[in-house]
Amino acid sequence: MDLLRELVGRKVTVFSLQGGGSERQDVGMLEAADSVWLRLRKGESEVMYFTVHQIRLIKPFDSH
């Protein structure tokens, strides 16, 4: 999980699998990550939580 901690504080796209096998993409600031949960802030009042089992891919935005 050290790899996830390196992305904390960065803008990322989270690709996750939802019920029924559908996939969704969410963009926001990765606020926290541990061995079970990931917290993504999408806006001032919108925060999403994902279990690591839902996540298919986390793509950081370029820092350039």
Give your account of this protein's structure.
It is a single chain. The chain is mainly beta. Helices cover 9% and strands 58% of the residues. It has one helix at 2-7, and strands at residues 11-17, 23-33, 37-43, 46-51, 55-60. Strands 4-3-2-1-5 form a 5-stranded antiparallel sheet. The mean pLDDT is 90.
Brief write-up:
With 64 residues, the chain is mainly β.
Structural features:
5-stranded antiparallel β-sheet; 9% helix; 58% strand; mainly beta; 64 residues
Topology:
Elements: H1 2-7, E1 11-17, E2 23-33, E3 37-43, E4 46-51, E5 55-60
Antiparallel strand pairs: 1-2, 1-5, 2-3, 3-4
Tally of strands: 5
Largest β sheet strand count, sense and barrel closure: 5 strands, antiparallel
Principal-axis shape = globular
State Rg: 11 Å
In percent, how helical is the residue content? under 10%
Unreliable runs: none
**Spatial gap, N to C terminus:** 25 Å
Order of helices and strands: HEEEEE
Helix run count: 1
- Give the overall average pLDDT: 90
- Quote the beta fraction: over 45%
**Helix/strand structural class:** mainly beta
**Spatial arrangement of strands, main beta sheet:** 4-3-2-1-5
